[in-house]
Design a protein that fits this description.
- This protein has about 150 residues and is of the alpha+beta class.
- The protein has one domain: GHMP kinase, C-terminal domain (Alpha-Beta Plaits).
Length: about 150
């Protein structure tokens, strides 16, 4: 999920790996699923900071967040991330264009955190198509995979 604080949802995904669905108001883990996805990340050169996010605009997305939670808890992770990403682009003032140019090829697309990075998931070949599109923009793209094991202290 995307939150202004980015605390519990990010921590749970980092610690457990895979996909986590959380209630950040109660720090409750609602669901965890191991996935092995190919992931494409695009980071434009500009920077954004969570402290600069318009909290009031983000709070207006509560009904959308409920829909996203329903989708995610129903196993529709790609649709959930796409709805979430488009909504938070609007709330945080980011152009949704990187998402829109990827939607026909990727299974799911989203804004990463409070921006400005974008992510896409899907079949590797489809993501290579998206990578070619995103590479025409200033910034950096990289193709990777999800982590399934979570963090380990060594």
């Amino acid at each position: 999920g995307v939150t202004v604080t980015g605390a519990f949802d990010d921590a749970s995904a980092s610690m457990l790996g895979g996909v986590t669905v959380t209630d950040n108001t109660t720090d409750e883990l609602l669901a965890h699923e191991t996935v092995g996805w190919d992931v494409l990340v695009y980071t434009p050169p500009e920077r954004a900071y969570s402290a600069e996010a318009d909290v009031a605009r983000c709070r207006q997305l509560a009904p959308v967040a409920d829909l996203v939670a329903e989708l995610a808890l129903g196993g529709e992770h790609a649709r959930a991330m796409t709805v979430n990403g488009l909504a938070f682009c609007a709330a945080l003032g980011f152009s949704p264009d990187p998402l829109l140019v990827a939607m026909d090829a990727a299974a799911g697309v989203s804004l990463s955190g409070t921006g400005p990075s974008f992510t896409a998931i899907g079949e590797r070949e489809a993501l290579e198509t998206v990578r070619d599109r995103w590479a025409k923009r200033e910034g950096r793209t990289w193709l990777t995979t999800t982590q399934t094991e979570g963090a380990r202290i060594t």
